[in-house]
Amino acid sequence: MRIVAVLAIGGLALSAAACGDKPSSNNGSSGNGKKYKACMVTDVGGIDDKSFNTSAWQGLQDAKAANGNIEIKYSASKAETDYQPNLNALVTEKCDLILAVGGLMTDATKAAAAANPAQKFAIIDSNIPAANVYSMQFNTAQAGFLAGYLAAGSSKSGKVATWGGLKIPPVTIFMDGFAEGVAHYNKVKSKTVAVLGWDNKSQEGLFAGSFTDQNKGKQLAEQLVAQGADVIMPVAGGAGLGTASAAQASGGKTSVIWVDADGCKSAAQYCDVFMTTVVKNIAGAVKDAVVAGADGKALTGAFTGVLGNNGVSLAPYNKFDSKVPAELKTEIDALKKDIVDGKIKIESPAQPK
Amino acid sequence: MKLELRGITKRFGDLVANDHIDLVVEPGEIHALLGENGAGKSTLMNVLYGLLRPDEGEILVNDVPQTFRSPGDAISAGIGMVHQHFMLVPVFTVAENIMLGAEDTKLGVLDKKKASAHITEVSQTYGLPVDPEAVVETLPVGVQQRVEIVKALTREVDLLILDEPTAVLTPQETDELLEVLRGLKAAGKSIVLITHKLREVKAIADKITVIRRGKVVGTADPGESEDELAAMMVGRHVQLVVDKSAAEPGAPVLTVKDLSVVDDRGHRAVTDIDLEVRAGEVLGVAGVQGNGQTELIEAIMGLRPAVSGSVLLGGAELRGRTTRQVLDAGVGYVPEDRSTDGLVKEFTVAENLVLDLYKSEPFGSKLVYRPEAVARNAKDRIEEFDVRTQSADAPVGSLSGGNQQKVIVAREMSRPLKLLIASQPARGVDVGSIEFIHKRIIRERDQGGAVLLVSTELDEILALADRIAVMYRGEIIATLPAAGATSEKLGLLMAGVTGD
Amino acid sequence: MTTVAQFWNRNRIAGAVYVLLGLLAVLYFGVSNPAKNDVTLRLTADTSLTFGARPVIIVLGLVTVAVGVALLAVLTARSHFAWTAGVALGALVLAFLFWGTSLAKTLHTIPVEALLYGTLIAATPLIFGALAGVLCERSGVVNINIEGQLLVGAFAGALVGTMTKSVWAGLIAAGVCGALMAALLAVFAIKYLVDQVVLGVVLNVLAFGITGVIYERLMQPNAAEYNNAGQFKPWEVPGLSDIPLLGPVLFRHNLFVYLALALVAAITFALFYTRWGLRTRAVGEHPTAADTLGIKVRLVRYRNTIMGGFVAGLGGAMLTIGAGVTFNKEMTAGKGFIALAALIFGRWSPVGAMLAALLFGFADAMQQFLSSVISPVPSQFLQMAPYLATLFAVAGLVGKVRAPAADGKPYVKG
Amino acid sequence: MTDEAKPPAAEPERTVPPEKDVAPRPNRPFRIFIEELTTASTFMVTVLAVVLALLVGSILVIISNDSAREAWGYFFAAPLDAFEMSWYAVRDAYVALFQGAIYDPAKPSAWGSISETLTYAAPLTFTGLSVALAFRAGLFNIGAQGQAVFGAIFGVLAGFLLHLPPVLHMLVALVCALIGGALWGFIPGILKAKTGAHEVITTIMLNNIAGIFLIWLVVQKGFQNPERTDAISKSAEENARLPRLLGFLEGDLRVNLAIVLAVLAAAGVSWLLNRSTFGFELRAVGGNPDAAKTAGMNVAMTYALVMAVAGGLAGLGGASMSLGLLPFALTPGVIANIGFDGITVALLGRAKPWGVLAGALLMGGLQAGAVKMNAVGGVPTDMVYVLQALIVIFIAAPALIKTVFRLRDGKASRSTATLAKGW
Fold it and tell me: What angle do the packed helices C275-285 and C297-320 form, to 10 degrees?
């Protein structure tokens, strides 16, 4: 009785594992030859945050696919206090490049870089001016702007919406761009498309309080739809999937603009509701950096992803390609050019400085 | 039904609660099981009722050996039990309580009608009126006991065990109960009556078995004298009356005027009480449990706010003071329920001996607590009050009831008192400890202290009090000098009968 | 602490608070920072009512004041406490809702239907959780483990639902896993006499850990095989679902909402009208008395605790296969604790717990609505609303409640 | 309530408590040692609980190891493979756990792992003491998390809003943290005292509220770090930070003054419990509130005060994170999970101050080891949750340990005392 009861749940899980007899083959670890070891430390969101951790890991996997001599691994942080020990553990593990994901890792990375001047680091969403740190930042407000314009242009109800995971700058930067894009549309077309869920002037809006709670994402979508919104942009990692799920249930009345990585690839099951994605091309930037590093090129300085260098972009319309009017597409392309040229300035307080 | 117990032994650790007990109850017999608190009577009956498993021995019903794994087995063998602490769910109705465990259902739904009808039938047959719809917690204890008996009878028992059934009854109610028991006997039921009250035993029992320290020390006929029985029960000759000189009352110490108090549920429990206790006298407050004594004392102690009136201690107002202030004013308090209110079980004997003194020198100051001084104090008190404990550092919960009570008495009497309030000081205490505690109370009086004694035991009141106040339904309906008071007269008063 | 006979009894204190809050509402929402825009109540797709927000708010504030005055002056009996609290606080909440909507940045329309629908959806997992609590605690086992039971339910629902490609199998597995979790609670609480409050908290940690590890290593990397369950499709009750307002709110859900409501009815009936219920309550109130009548106290407790776990497990499944979303680490996000508060607020009765759950659901839905239209209150403070509501409910309205007398006390047979 | 069903504790002749009659102790040292090992003493139960938890946890290690899981997939084809791979997985994981917690030859400094263990242990000691103190008064403080949040907030605010000389600034910041935590702890205390609201519910709600408040605060103007675009506040000034202890050694050793303060706090709580009148009161209230009230103690005030003191301790724990570790600023997750982990620590330490310190060291070791275990073998850090929970459950149910390992009856095998009261 005693032990049996204790082990019951463990046993259940074990039997679950025994059923899964399909061998996963992504773990090739033949140790011949000196490989380039690229390691990353996730932030507290974990590897499956459907956001920057996932994207960065994707970048590492892409790099490995591109160059067979690259070996990758990650170390998850459960808490912010784990950043430093995780970075140090990877130093001990003799990684060639250690990638820190997330701006909150700035100070820990700075310290680790100073303590290990021979060790190469890279960081996402931060800028560390040190010789052995390669910084990657992304001005997603630019792509968000395009998404806002697109949403306003395709809304039939005249109401579009966005909501976020937590009210923190890496999230609100998307929402700022989105709201400004809608405002720009209203200005140009003399329309009054309303944005639910975010007001970029007062910096107030709708938040789930979580990046994982899909049920909340679903409820928020249902609320927003009830108020008339027909295009919704969730900026909340995995929680946003709830909104996609709600949109799918609406049978085409509601569409979703996804963020971070192209939704038709990262959450393919919902591809038919994704109008487009505000891409923050972490994967691309990471892949480029790692491949360059493996080739022995010096990794230093800073990279800022903007529309101009494809660091941020609007993904293909995928299944909406036929639904988005050609005219609107042209306007968006023109807008993109204006932003790249600096004719249109975006004023999100959360932009990289 | 004939019941026979052979060589029943029950141990708890190294403690032998029942030591090879033999007992025979003949059909239609009222068999009294006599013994003082802690002698092992209740343990024996719990074994018989299937609540405890005996370590040795066997139970025979109508000469057939039986094994009772649970009370359910005992019930189906025809044994019923009325426990000292009633086994009634307070928030249930009478009918729910009675049907519990033997429910009739109709299409899965409880058939309350049938249950009520059955209850009414049993009530009428045995003259035990109860209202099936009443919620138990609203009923007076006497009625609750009736419910317990009806509960047993509806299960068609042939043998009924009653554990200290008269502890909560007035003398008149006790007489009524005895009458009911005679009726049951006449109907052919066997009855086992557990008690330590000699008067009742003599009044009703057909046969008496005396238990002491877990062993049967003998059997007796009801014709035996009370002194003989008491001696058998305790193992030596007992002084049933406390030696004391006449009181020499001085100035009033405690003056209660027009005091009104409400109980936990907001009902008025004490109404406009006037009371005076003088230096050098014991005022006994008699009354059946639940007539406002508890609330009265709690109000005096500052444990419960009074609605109106005043409480003066030597002229100073106590009402509105905190318990701390009342204690500091020179009031000692032996609470009615020692395990709930008097002691912290996990604390050591030493710590319990300073439970309300820890902030005063030498045990502590405002901030610092001094375990060394507490230990020294414990050594002295344990000696002075003859507390039987393995050590001063033993948890007080490991002591016997009598010794626990001595710890409280020692604590409360170890500082100069103006007033001692002792509530049920002898409840659940063995005879030796009772004698000791009573003597200390009288000594407190003789030293010029005022004593307010609250007890539901008339014998205790009669033995100790100089004056007696009787409480009934929140009022003091009579105050009379102890000389000349008889238990019959007090019994009538306790039942609310004042007219001569 | 008896205060009844004193002047400042509970009703009077509440009355004074209502008067104060009502006046504040009138002064702040109506005068110093007044509602400006008209507010539209959209009841159904084509029925709307439009009000001038300011007069409505003032009237609502005055209603609160009036209830407060009545409590101070005449309604001093205990029986008046509950309904007056409902009226006074309800009026205040409505006043706040109108004010927030009126001053919102974008829209000034309250979608009543969606608000109520959202309330019910948010409340349903809480109802399951609270019912689990009712089952356990009525028999005397404190269940702080609701959170963990919901979590393993959600986990098993998704895992087994995916592996078997059957949401029904997922549902059963969710119940079974919830029951297993509860069985652990039962064994350690009843057999090993471990402190039940502590035990519940620790078992929650265990549930976080086990589901977290398996999720991270198994379900997340191989989501298609292990974390891709289907969904229970909504079933519109024929006829009833066409009733205006009520239809869309109540009768266009999937299995879980109906199941929750049915369980509330079933457990209420069973608890108060059947043999099982009588014995359960007896064991929770006075186990020794039950024992003396031949009822197997521990058995009743084992059975009820495990049943409770089963119900909580089902509720957990609502979060995955009920909503059509994947399992995620710690996805219950404190719902089990809110359910626990609902249980206490609802005084251990199934119906009371349901009403309390609906109250929290409403706080949640209202917060989402006000945030989405950009009301003048910062979103984080709105996010605190359900927690503040719970805090207020437990501290202000419930106070010392009467739990089943033997709740949390292990039964040790002599 | 049910005196009747219990064995009659009130036997007049019984003056010897039953604890005595455990087998007599032999007097030869070796025999005593063996005796200790085979008896369910407190120490043995704790050790065996850890062992048993690691054993049960290894099941999860195996599940979470790809190669092992694969091998179990074709168990019937090559059963030895499954066992071999499982053994490797478990061995590697626990070796990494040990390396991360105690000694890791790969680290630049021999003190590297110990430093990490102590770093993790310090805040847990504070929150553990917080929970333990409340336990002793019969209260279950699940709110250490929220109290630590407020401690962290007050500490950092004092750290960057004030400008004071070295040492003094740190002391002021710590006092502020203590006050912050105490305020947040006082709320459930006073609610319990005045309305009877159960602290389990109120503290959980207050945790949530504190968490949301923190997220709001860090991005407000004047608080947010003006050089950063993410959710991080300004950093506490150098003077307010807790200095590192092993800065002079090679390597980047994080261990800081917090662990010293934690030891002092354990000593302080120990004094408070055993040598102060307040401690006497709180233990009495915890043991029997009715008797405490009858003895003239102010139970309500004791509850409120205990929760305030517990909150203050948790607040110091929060500050030991926000002032002791990078980035010395507030972020949404600045205090990690120390409040909830503190519950485990308090239970591990059986609510005794020095026990809490030991428990915190064990838990700190587990957490430090988990980082390594994760970095090397990919075992999820959630594994720590599982180990934590199992250890505590096994400790709380000594009878289970006794049965599993066939120990003889000892002091610890009796059922545990009730720590928190039911509703």
Answer: 110
Taking an 8 Å cut-off on Cβ atoms, the answer to whether B262 and C5 are in contact is yes
Q: Residue C397's closest chain D neighbor by CA?
A: D195
Cis omega (within 30 of 0) on the bond before D353?
no
Instruction: For residue D389, give the nearest of C203, C291, C380 by CB distance.
Output: C203
Evaluate if residue C170 carries a pLDDT over 90: yes
Residue B385's contacts (CB-CB under 8 Å, 6 or more residues apart) are B406, B407, B409, B410, B436, B440
CATH number of the domain within which B271 lies: 3.40.50.300
Interface pTM (ipTM) of the complex?
0.89
* CATH level 3 topology of A36-138+283-305: Rossmann fold (3.40.50)
Domain ranges of chain A: 36-138+283-305, 140-280+322-341
The model's pLDDT over D263-295, given as tens digits with 9 standing for 90+, comes to 999 999 999 999 999 999 999 999 999 999 999
DSSP string for residues in A144-185: HHHHHHHHHHH-SSSEEEEEESSSSHHHHHHHHHHHHHHHHH
Q: Which two tokens stand for residue A16?
A: 């679950």
> Which residue of D54, D70, D139, D198 is the best one to mutate when testing the C interface, meaning the one whose CB has the most C CBs within 10 A?
D198
The DSSP result for C146-210, as a single string, is: HHHHHHHHHHHHHHHHHHHT-HHHHHHHHHHHHHHHHHHHHIIIIIS---HHHHHHHHHHHHHHH
pLDDT for A169 beyond 90: no
What are A240's strand-pairing partners? none
Residue D165 inside a domain? The answer is: yes
The answer to whether residue B478 sits within a structural domain is: yes
**Same CATH fold assignment for domains A36-138+283-305 and A140-280+322-341:** yes
Write the burial class of residue B218 (CB in 10 Å: 0-12 exposed, 13-18 middle, 19+ buried): middle
- One domain, residues B340 and B465: yes
Instruction: Give B389-415 pLDDT, tens digit per residue.
Output: 888 999 998 888 889 999 999 999 988
**C319-378 pLDDT, tens digit each:** 999 988 889 888 898 899 899 989 988 889 999 999 999 999 999 999 999 999 888 888
pLDDT-based confidence at D12, cuts 50/70/90? very low
Range of the domain at D152: 122-381
Q: Which pair of structure tokens corresponds to residue C351? A: 């119906």
Decide if B246 is inside a domain: no
Q: Is there a single domain that holds both residue D239 and residue D132? A: yes
Residues A140-280+322-341: name the CATH superfamily: Response regulator (3.40.50.2300)
User: Neighbouring chains of C at 3+ CB pairs within 8 Å?
Assistant: A, B, D
Domain count, chain B: 2
Looking at the structure, do residues B393 and B298 belong to the same domain, yes or no?
A: yes
| Whether D194 and D234 share a structural domain | yes
Give per-residue pLDDT as tens, D94-147. 999 999 899 888 887 888 899 999 999 999 999 999 999 999 999 999 999 999
Question: Which structural domain range is residue B284 located in?
Answer: 252-494
Say whether C293 and B71 touch across the interface (CB within 8 A): yes
pLDDT of residue C23 exceeding 80, the answer is: yes
- In angstroms, what CA-CA distances link B312 with A124, A211, B95, B443, D393? 78, 66, 47, 24, 54
Enumerate residues 6+ apart whose C-beta is below 8 A from D279. B369, D271, D272, D273
> Chains B, C: CB contacts under 8 A, how many?
92
Residues of chain C with pLDDT > 90, as a percent, come to 49
Contact between C183 and A17 using a beta-carbon 8 Å cutoff? no
Give which of B207, B314, B191, C412 is closest to D415, Cα–Cα.
C412
User: Identity (one letter) of the amino acid at A133?
Assistant: V
Beta-strand pair B3-12/B56-61? antiparallel
Residues of A in contact with D229 (CB under 8 A): 103, 169-170, 173, 349-353
Q: Tell me which chain A residues have a C-beta less than 8 angstroms from the C-beta of C372.
A: 161, 163, 196-197, 205-206, 220, 223-224, 227
